[in-house]
Amino acid sequence: MTHDEHKEGIGGMANPTRYGIERVAYWLMRLSGLGLLAYFVAHIYETSNILRGQVGWNEFLELTQTTEGHIFLALVIAMCVFHTVNGVRVMLGHGGVGVGKPARPDYPYDPASQNYRHKIGIYSAILLAAIATMYGLAVMFGE
Amino acid sequence: MAQVSSIAEEQASTLKTITLRIARYNPEHDDSSKFMEFNVSYEKWTTVLEAILDVKKHHDHSVAVRYSCRQATCGSCGMMINGKPKLACFTKISELNSNVITVEPMNNFPIIRDLAVKFERLFDTHQKIKPYLIRDDTELESDAKEFLQSPKELEQYIQFANCIKCGLCNSACPTMATDSSFVGPQALAQAYRYVADSRDKGKDSRLKIIDESHGIWRCHFAGSCSQVCPKGVDPAMGIQFLRGYLLGFRS
Asked: Which chain B residues are closer than 8 Å to A114 by Cβ?
């Protein structure tokens, strides 16, 4: 942290522990976004192996058939499902949908924008990601 | 006399002590901040600000802190209290449930000294969104009537008019943590306050101001701003409504 501007920095931005489940969702959204971007780049590299012919393609594909490969793909499933479901919630919120109505606030000032609809959306995204990952693991390791 | 003595004994028995850790930093001669610890007695109603003022009075008068009203109205005493931005005058020690209380200057604001931070940027961004009614006519003319407004119209913005410009929202915002140019939740919420005011005609000009690369699009709806607001402003709600105007969800 530099003292000139006293910015909290990436460490503060990425710290999910202080501001409830909404900040956790924010953090997971960034993390899964970066993870999917990395997967996208890796996927392009992977599919480019087709240029090495059938043998080269099969050689590379064998990497995904290892335990590490299965765990990596399970993580991709988790990131993809969470990012999609939470993304729908965030997009609706960004349009002002489901963020409550302006009203005179009463103490203790629970923010209407952090309402149960959004909390349900966040927990649903986490739950669906977990279910999809477990299903993926069952398919990959159940062979 | 015996009664006075028993009251004094009772008061002494209810007094508890905490360790108050205060971040000390003077940009003129310090390279980094360090913490000084003080043992402070408190009652169940003692606020963090009162504890800091107790330290100033009895232990170290050089501790720098900004405060004024002591009743969550002036917005001067915002600081990080046990890692979260709060108003020191609005936070009781007893509600923190900790024997050690750490106070630091608010994040994302340049430090003047110790707990006092500079507010210039917050006031600049607040001013940037034109925080006043924009109209062609005026109610100041002698024959003009006041601008009428129904209670329903008032409800659309009154919540956002509670802003005391304490800066807690900007301190909690994850985008402010990394982007020096972001306009910030305080200014965006105030932009909505005027856009939603039925008397105002400056919606287009305000939307144009915030529709830029470091403007409203940098908000990712983490909602931390709303969670720390001590006046119930809910900046996250106002920002999403503003974005609704820009995206065509609202008219």
From this structure: 223, 226-227, 236
Tally of CB atoms within 10 A around B120: 10
A19/B172 CB distance under 8 A: yes
pLDDT tens for each residue of B178-188: 998 999 999 99
CATH class of B2-117: alpha beta
Largest CA distance in chain B: 75
Kindly state whether residue A88 falls inside one of the protein's structural domains: yes
**Between B32, B157, B176, which is nearest A102 by CB?**
B157
- The reply to whether A115 falls in a domain is yes
Find chain A residues with C-beta within 8 A of B172's C-beta: 19
- Which residues of chain A neighbour B236 with C-beta distances below 8 Å? 99, 111, 113-114
What is the residue-level pLDDT of chain A in tens, covering all 143 positions?
Answer: 445 789 999 999 988 889 999 999 999 999 999 999 999 999 999 889 888 888 888 888 888 889 999 999 999 999 999 999 999 999 999 999 999 999 999 988 999 999 999 999 999 999 999 999 999 999 998 86
Nearest to A99 among B83, B233, B237 (CB): B237
Q: How far apart are CA A132 and CA A135, in angstroms?
A: 5
Average pLDDT over residues B142-159: 87
Give the number of domains in chain A: 1
Instruction: State the virtual CA torsion across B203, B209, B210, B213 in degrees, nearest 10.
Output: 150
A105–B162 CB contact, under 8 Å: yes
A76 lies in some domain: yes
Range of the domain at A110: 9-37+67-141
Domain positions in chain B are 2-117, 120-247
Q: Answer yes or no: is A135 within a domain.
A: yes
- In A56-75, the residues whose Cβ lies within 8 Å of chain B are none
Q: Quote the CA–CA distance of A82 and A88 in Å, as a whole number.
A: 10
Q: What ipTM, to 2 d.p.?
A: 0.88
Measured between beta carbons, the chain A residues lying within 8 angstroms of B231 are 105, 109
Q: Which of B186, B182, B174, B161 is nearest to B224 (CA)?
A: B174
Contact flag A111-B249 (C-beta cutoff 8 Å): no
Q: How confident is the model at residue B13 (pLDDT cuts 50, 70, 90)?
A: low
Class of domain B120-247 as given by CATH: mainly alpha
